[in-house]
Amino acid sequence: MPELPEIEVLRLSLEPSLVGEEIRAVEVRSPKLREPLDRPALESLVGRWVVGLRRRAKYLLIDLSDERTLVVHLGMSGQLTLVAGTTERVVHEHLRLELSSGRALRLVDPRRFGLAFVGESAWLARDRHFAGLGPEPLAGGFDGGTLAAAAAGRRGPVKVFVMDGSVVVGVGNIYASESLWRAGIHPGRSVARISRARWDLLASQVVAVLGDAIRQGGTTLNDFVDGQGESGYFQVSLGVYGRDGELCPRCTATIRRQIHAQRSTFYCPRCQR
DNA sequence: AAATGAACCTGTTTGC
DNA sequence: TGCAAACAGGTTCATT
Fold this sequence. Notes:
Oligomer: single chain
Number of helices: 6
Order of helices and strands: HEHEEEEEEEHHHHEE
Shape: globular
Largest sheet: 4 strands, antiparallel
Helix content: 10-25%
Structural class: alpha+beta
Distance between the termini: 28 Å
Number of strands: 10
């Protein structure tokens, strides 16, 4: 479900309501996620309050008053929402934090590819979940040179390359297709056959498409909602994703679908080379 | 080292 | 209508 823009939209939507909230109770309702929830660690958050929200790659970082951070990853189907504290429990509600305002923060994840764990704020960068991650595309310093350097000695398809979190973080299946379409690069092209000028173009389009998606509240295909339960609107701006058989908005050729590394890729066979 | 395929899950859509 | 197959936004592990 969520790529970088969706997590950033979630962070922005939760921040004003969540900062300053004290955690009054923790309910681990079903510990079965990608890694089992650590019940004692999560329950030890009671009495702490939220001091800030950050994002690293597709992880949401909820910084707490005791120098620890609650890390949440939504996997493919996770939702993290603020609800009224009295709200009934729902299916696949794995974790629930009761807050001082009377509301609750609820993590729901049917497919269970998500994560939630507690770490020392100062040591998160060394945590195994973060240690191998590449640069943030929306932070300064990410450009065509970053991509060209990472591509040295590699030969695989650029679609798979740009989704590799050790190259650059946050670009998932939707925005990989979209940024390649905007850059006019064929997703199956080997990274060994991409010029420096085209790496520059791709990097700038990655930055542009992620920024556009954030400004439009993210992409809601089936179930993405922000922390207040609101859907995003970027899906109407998608150029190729999910549009095989339709006409390319740029050149009117027919958009095609292809599989790369077991994931659907959408592209225009005429204006992407 | 890099590339590839499979695995982890449930829910919804598609096709016969 | 009903059932089975295909498919879904992510990450990690094993195998070439």
